[in-house]
Known about the structure:
This protein is mostly helical and 498 residues long. The chain has two domains: 11-194 and 260-491, Growth Hormone, Chain: A, CATH 1.20.1250.20; 204-259. It has helices at residues 15-38, 40-44, 52-80, 82-101, 106-134, 140-168, 171-192, 205-228, 233-255, 269-300, 304-309, 312-321, 325-332, 334-355, 360-387, 394-426, 430-433, 442-448, 453-491; strands at residues 4-5, 197-198. The longest helix is centred in the last third of the chain and has 39 residues, at 453-491. Residues 1-13 and 494-498 have low confidence and may be disordered.
Amino acid sequence: xxxxxxxxxxxxxxxxxxxxxxxxxxxxxxxxxxxxxxxxxxxxxxxxxxxxxxxxxxxxxxxxxxxxxxxxxxxxxxxxxxxxxxxxxxxxxxxxxxxxxxxxxxxxxxxxxxxxxxxxxxxxxxxxxxxxxxxxxxxxxxxxxxxxxxxxxxxxxxxxxxxxxxxxxxxxxxxxxxxxxxxxxxxxxxxxxxxxxxxxxxxxxxxxxxxxxxxxxxxxxxxxxxxxxxxxxxxxxxxxxxxxxxxxxxxxxxxxxxxxxxxxxxxxxxxxxxxxxxxxxxxxxxxxxxxxxxxxxxxxxxxxxxxxxxxxxxxxxxxxxxxxxxxxxxxxxxxxxxxxxxxxxxxxxxxxxxxxxxxxxxxxxxxxxxxxxxxxxxxxxxxxxxxxxxxxxxxxxxxxxxxxxxxxxxxxxxxxxxxxxxxxxxxxxxxxxxxxxxxxxxxxxxxxxxxxxxxxxxxxxxxxxxxxxxxxxxxxxxxxxxxxxxxxxxxxxxxxxx
Length: 498
């Protein structure tokens, strides 16, 4: 059915202020994923008394809801109006942050994190939809490149800003600060974001619930594996439920008249390859953020602010080089660009695993290399996904690329965090490794054996290095699949996004 126009707006009008607004909103919701990683040592020592799996869920509860609801929220923006859904999302985001700030226990903290994830899901895809609507077609590749840079820089902003707040206050102050920033963004969006079109669409509740359940079951299996045992009933049941729920989701979506996400879209090799590429790019990125924050604090003795500032080398390529990426793609093509992107990201992660105890400039060089990889990958993959769907489906296109990114972030935190915990416990001193229950965090180990500080720290570094090498291997192998898919697409004559 033809869309109903809310307000007529020439695409070239107000595109600059709109780009600035949606970029800041994007950096906020993406940066919050990174900021919470800096607070992990404080949370581990807090009155909440979280276990190692609790800590992973505190980080991932936000990202899971974010990833699973971002496509339905994009569809809701298409139907109800993207500006209205964006503003509602910012309000929900602020409320969830307040709930987390006052949480007396882990359960309430997780509720607040999930609510904040719901708000973030409403924000991110509708930022893309509003930006595409407000930008002239010939300027969209560059606008998308800037917006994609905001997603990468958001992680660094979260590290630096989170470190500044945490160095002067508790983890609760971090959530209060985030709530205040979200309120300011709400006022800004109300003033600058245009109202676009509304599409007569139904919202797919069954598909949404099944997708959430499938991803949560997968993460339960990954996160609980080290503690429950990989062959335990809980873990095997969770893996099985994830597979069955995913198959059920495909069946429901294929039969739905208005599916949340039509699985047939992934018959397009360019789209499916780009989605996998986005997932694996942010798998490596946010897996790094989870390890890096604690590695710098525990391994190098950095303060929380120093740890936040320590990630800055990664942002230099994003700040200085992103605007040149569309031209580079045009000159050398998507496969060559992605080959370089994944090679740089994977080699950077591998290099960090050997530089964790070297002088910081060596470690910073590894971060810079990873930044180069993200700089190349994010704009290229964003443009591929956006070009695969028509502009009137911009909300769903934004939701799809956001969902793959946040799913990658959630998996990165879960997988890297799980490998880190397994490596840490395996390298604990003999007296601690015999303790029941086995300590699974640095804080738990030091509480039991404060005199073994050096050995406990060494065990953590071993675990972190193993996790970084595993992440590098995943990025390199999966990146090779993405590049192969891009080459096949190029041979079939599908035009590259420009």
